[in-house]
Write a structure and sequence with these properties.
Shape: elongated
CATH class: Alpha Beta
CATH topology: Trna Endonuclease, Chain: A, domain 1
Number of helices: 3
């Protein structure tokens, strides 16, 4: 049975995107990875200080951050470390916006994290497993060399 949400031609963009994120989170959990949905947006507080009927806006989350956060466990000897990962889901013809590209480069990758844009759950899991194995192997090599 495919793990990716079926393509629904009439499904709204947000519904397809939310389903891709939901299915991916389930599959990451089944694969043993600690992952969660990263929420960003605005909520409105209705009180006497509100300038209009919508209410006062309150932003939450970091602009440009990805849909899913994950920690990949890396083990060196008897110590366990976590590697920060972010996964950005895209459906249809969706592309990263400039804030997402800046976040990927300046916040995640320049600080040693792993970031991936994905459209398919199976492809993401394959890439995550390969990256995780590579990083773990590389750390073991570095430790063996005395660094």
């Amino acid at each position: 049975m495919p793990r990716n949400p079926p393509p629904f031609p009439r499904m709204a963009h947000n519904q397809a995107h939310n389903e891709l994120v939901r299915v991916t989170l389930l599959e990451l959990a089944k694969a043993g990875y600690c992952a969660w949905k990263n929420e960003t947006g605005v909520w409105f507080e209705h009180d006497e200080r509100a300038e209009d009927e919508k209410g006062r806006p309150h932003k939450y989350g970091k602009v440009g951050s990805a849909d899913i956060f994950c920690i990949l466990p890396l083990i060196i000897g008897n110590s366990k470390f976590g590697l920060h990962c972010e996964f950005e889901a895209k459906t249809g013809t969706g592309r990263q916006n400039p804030n997402q590209k800046k976040h990927q480069e300046y916040v995640v990758e320049r600080n040693g994290g792993f970031y991936m844009v994905f459209r398919d759950t199976d492809a993401l899991l394959t890439e995550v497993r390969a990256f995780h194995a590579f990083k773990q192997h590389r750390l073991m090599e570095l430790c063996a060399s005395g660094l």
